[in-house]
Amino acid sequence: MSLIDDFLARWHEYRRPGYYEEFDYHWTMTVDLDRCTGCEACVTACQAENNTPIVGEDAIARGRHMQWMRIERYWEGEYPDVKLRAIPMFCQHCDAAPCETVCPVSATYHNQDGLNAQIYNRCIGTRSCAVYCPYEVRYFNYNNHHWDEPLDQQLNPDVSVREKGVMEKCTFCIQRIRQAKDAAKDDGRRRVQDGEVQPACVQTCPTEALVFGDRKDPDSAVSQMLGNERAYTVLEELNTDPSVVYLKKVDADAA
Ligand code: SF4
After folding, report:
1. How far is the CA of 40 from the centre of ligand 1 (A)?
2. How far is the CA of 39 from the centre of ligand 1 (A)?
3. What is the pLDDT of residues 159-182, one digit of tens each?
4. For a tag on the chain, would you pick the N or C end, based on fewer CB atoms within 10 A?
5. 39 lines ligand 1 (CB under 6 A)
6. pTM of the entire predicted model
C-alpha cells in the first residue's frame, strides 16, 4: 500500500459513522473563557506533572520552546479601551486528527479513551505531525534535558522523561486516567465515575475554568457544558472535531 493509500484509508476510518461510539470513553475538556484570568497556574501545573523541561533562553530564541500548554493572549480594541483576551491552548485531541493520518510510523494514534495518544518509543522524529497540526500544540524535543539536584527529586515517577528526537504534547494527563481506571477496576466498578479524574491543569485552575470528563456519560459535568449556547471549537471549519470545547467570553459592554 502506498503512503497516500495508507493516509486515505486511515482518514476514511476516522470519518466512518459510529467510529467514536465504539470507544470505551470519550474524554473531553471544556474551557470557560469567561472564567479564565490568564494566570497560567495551569501551565505551571502541567509542567510539573509531566516532567516538562525548562529549555532556557537560547533554545526559546531559536523557537525550541517546550510547554505542553500555553496561554495565548489577544488584545481587542484601541488604547485606552483595550481588553485582554486569554485563551488556554493545548492538544485538542481531535477525533479526526490530521497528525494521526500523516505519521509514517503511527506513533500518534487514537486510543480507546478517545485520546490522541503519542508513543515515544515509536516516534522517529520526522515532525510531520507538527506540520499538519493546525493548533501548533506539538513540541519537538531537541535535547536530552538534565535536572540538577535537588530538582530531580520533583520528577513525577508516573511520567517518562523523554529523550531528544521525539515529539511531545498534552496527553490529558493519561497517567491519572490510568490510575482512575485501575482504581475503578479494583473496586469492582465497570467505569470511572464523573469527577474521579482530573488532569493537573483542571485540578489547579483557581477559577474552575476547566472542566474534564467523559462525554459518553450524559450526566457528566462536561456533557452538561457541551450543551451551553456559548460552546464552540477552535478552527471548526477544518472538521478536526476537537475534544476541547471552549465557552465564549461574556462581554458585558457588548450588550
Ligand atoms: S489556571 Fe485557569 S484561570 Fe489561570 S490561565 Fe489556566 S485556565 Fe485560565
Report:
1. 5
2. 5
3. 999 999 999 999 999 999 999 999
4. C
5. yes
6. 0.89
Q: How far is the CA of 36 from the centre of ligand 1 (A)?
A: 5
> Which candidate, 253, 222, 244, 249, places its Cα nearest to that of 33?
249
What pLDDT does residue 20 have? Answer: 67
Distance 172 CA to ligand 1 centre (A): 15
Q: Structural domain of residue 235, as residue ranges?
A: 3-247
Nearest to 72 by CA among 252, 246, 217: 246
CB 45 less than 6 A from any atom of ligand 1? no
Residues of the chain with pLDDT under 50: 255
Note whether residue 255 is domain-resident. no
User: From the CA of 33, how far away is ligand 1's center (Å)?
Assistant: 9
Position 254 scores a pLDDT of 60
User: Whose alpha carbon is nearest atom 2 of ligand 1?
Assistant: 205
Q: Which residue has the cell 530538582?
A: 151
pLDDT at residue 222, rounded to an integer: 96
In this prediction, residue 180 carries a pLDDT of: 96
Domains contained in the chain, number: 1
244 and 209 Cβ atoms separated by less than 8 Å = no
Rounded Cα–Cα distance for residues 62 and 65 (Å) = 8
Q: What's the burial of 4, exposed, middle or buried (CB within 10 Å: 0-12/13-18/19+)? A: exposed
- E-state strands within 4-133: 27-32, 69-76, 83-90, 108-110, 116-118
Query: Which ligand 1 atom minimizes the distance to the CA of 35?
Result: 3
For residue 7, tell me if it sits in a domain: yes
Distance between CA atoms of residues 215 and 124, nearest Å: 33
| CATH code of the domain in which 230 resides | 3.30.70.20
